[in-house]
Amino acid sequence: MKKILITVLYIVVSLCCAAQQATINGNVSDTLNGVKLSNTVVALLHAKDSILYKFVRADDKGHFDIKNIPAGNYVLLVTYPTYADYVESLTLTDTSHIHLNKIILIQKSRLLKEVVIQQKVAAIKMKGDTTEFNAESFKTAANASVEDLLKKLPGIQVNSKGQITAQGETVKKVLVDGEEFFGDDPTLVTKNLRADMVDKVQLYDKKSDQATFTGVDDGEKSKTINIQLKEDKKRGYFGKLAVGAGDHGFHNTEGLFNLFRGKKKIAAYGIMSNTGKIGLNWEDREKFGASSISVDDQGNMEFFGAGGDDLDNWSGRYEDNGYPLVQTGGLHYGDKWDQDRKNLNMNYKFMKLYVDADKTVSTQNILKDTIYSSNSAEQSKNSIMRNRINGLYELQVDSTSSIKLLVDGGLDHKITSMRNTSEMQKNDMLINNGYRITNNTSDAGKLNTNLLWRKKLKKKGRTVSLNIAENYSRTNGEGTLDALTEFYQKGQVDSTQRIDQLKTVNNEQLNINTNITYTEPLSKKSSLVFNYGINVSNSHSNRNSFNKNNGGKYSLLDSLYSNDYAFNILTHRGGISYAYTLNNKLRMNLGGNVGFTNFNQKDMFRDHVQERSFVNWYPNASVRYSFTQQRRLNFFYQGYTQQPDINQLQPIRTNDDPLNIVIGNPNLQPSFNNSFRLGYSDFKVMSGRSIWASASYNFVSDAISSRSDLDTSGKRTSQAVNVNGNRSIRYDLDMGWKISPWDLRIGGSIGGDFSRNVNYVNSLLNITNSSRTSISFNMQKEVEKKYQFYFTASANYNVGVSSVQSTFRTDYWSYYIEPNADVYLPWKLQLHGDMSYAIRQRTAVFTGNNNAVIVNAFLAKKFGKKELMQVNFSMNDIFNQNIGFDRSVQTNTITQTRYSTIGRYALLSFIWNFNKLGPGAPKQ
């Protein structure tokens, strides 16, 4: 009896609850003849995230009925083949009973004849590991560049230099239709291709070709953007010619021509400019293996190594320090033919860059009971002539196998000249001063090749691939060092050191890496991957210093600062991994490699040979779970070994700076890095809300750090050593919303990092803890042909403290306010203005005027129906406040740098954009 009562009570409650839920019903028909559309799909989606709640099909009379709907906000979607979709937003209560008597669908063909359809496509989609932005969903002005488009995409930032950051990481490559376009300078794509040519923008971590083929992550990846062009923009030609001249000798001339004929792309560009805005930074510079890390106000990290393979410290790039003059150009050719079985992509670039610069540096070295303060002033004249060529050829041999060959090489000729004056104080008492003059000339070359063979075997999922890579580089240089240093005791000159030497450097390195990978499917969802490889790395460094003989010639070898050293590494590496995929929602990869490494170190100058062996482990794991097409969670772990380089190992004293002597350490051990990263992304189609969040943790065993000793005269002696305890944490949260009533997009981010770095200072173990917290806000709005506005503001808080003197802290705030606006006036006039206001807190160390308000503006008059021609009058740094400024904390050393940089100038330019794309374009 009790069970019967409970059952009756449950039925009554269920009926009551059902009665309190909403219902929707209606009828679907054709607008032209009133025909009832049977089997029409009627879907109900949650308005907040577009997730499907329920769907039904209309009966043979076109009638549908959806019952028992909880209260809330929904979107009703009615769809039928060859008909335009019907969409309606609904707000339901517990008592809502909505009857849609006549839902009339219109055939797409009829709509196309009568009206222009504005189809709402999802602005952002997740496809596998790729985030895809629909370019049409982000409005840009007429003749806007790809860079203007990227600035509007959630999670992507483009700074004033054109450098791109996406989801907290630096974008290293920008591809066009999946292929390189002028190689390694993203700005050549983003500043010169037009936004209206773009169909999709794809953002992903580009893996090695072998990892992409096998599906197993090998740790090689770089944040990449692929610009996918519209099909109708792949036939014809387009380009730009700009000529500008201004006061104080400033000028800018640039030309770009592109010819697209289907899959064939031919392009050329040329630039002559001293404005520092374009064509300067095409050279990857990723030399890690560092001894210490410096973090600036905005969290950018710079790595410092012990020694180098050149005689100067100029990177060969313009980095806003000084006054540049660039003459550069390039050619690009790409084509696919024979039903895409063959693919050829080639690039050639040439550049002459001249940079004249001067800077002042204030440094404090914090010891346990002493603070050493130094000030230096430096003037330099640098130039480089650079040639680069790279190419790709891919052949699809048959339906199961392919061969891919990549080749790139280059030659650099660099000339540098520098004069430095400095003085150092110990507890406010002068202990040394002097000057240093260097003149250097060097030639550097490189040649890299990569051959990949891929083969699919008969069983589905069974594959084999072979990758052979070669990297060769050499540097030959010669220079002079003229230095005079006076050392003081109690305010009087106690001793003097004079160095007048000729220095030569001849460095050579050859790496050959082979790897064979075999995949074996275990089921439709899982597979095993086996790999084995051999890596050979041979380095040779010959550095000599010569003093003058009695006749004034540099012929006396100084053995203390000379060395001839060879460092050879042989590694056998193999492993296994397991891959699992479930319904395209869960993708998992677990595995590891083990490496057997042999070091052979030959000090030929002192006839000494050292042999060492190591066993290295390379574990890795990755998991990706997709909740929906727009929401996912990623986890990644990688453990890897980092070998010391020859400049850290060779037993030589380097006195390029007589007050900072560097000694090699032939007993350095490899370091082992553990890297964890967790990422989450979510996008809601209807509201336009986006979230990107990530957190990473890294710790290093036997990290390659430094041991430095500063004596009472102010001389520092440094050496690379192994330490334990280095670790870092980084986190980023980036969010964006679209406020529909005002067509306004707003966003914000919170991020930061914490690092713990260990080194030795005057034989004391020193632990430096530094952290940065950042918060930012951005807002953008555009009314077509009227105005567009972009605003961003950020605040950063930095803290640093070293254990050698824990009472001495460096903590400071820095703020950045950057509005940017365009107003479109009658008579085809455009007024543009942008500002960068940097507010940097003064401290006991970072003194002086640290703030700057940089305002730029231009007034443009456009001509023609398509506004392809314009005359542009621009003003750079109107208030002339562009001070070159940088500050950083590096272990127990605090540095503030001020340097010369481009200030106020006016420029009058003529710009001609030309194109003949799409229908009517020249045929192949």
Automatic annotation (TrEMBL):
Keywords: Receptor, Signal
Domain of life: Bacteria
Segment forming the signal sequence: 1-18
Domain (Outer membrane protein beta-barrel) ranges: 455-912
Molecular function GO labels: carbohydrate binding
Coiled-coil region: none
Protein name: TonB-dependent receptor
UniProt keyword Signal present: yes
Gene3D superfamilies xrefs: Carboxypeptidase-like, regulatory domain
Pfam families: CarboxypepD_reg, OMP_b-brl_3
Protein biosynthesis is among the record's keywords: no
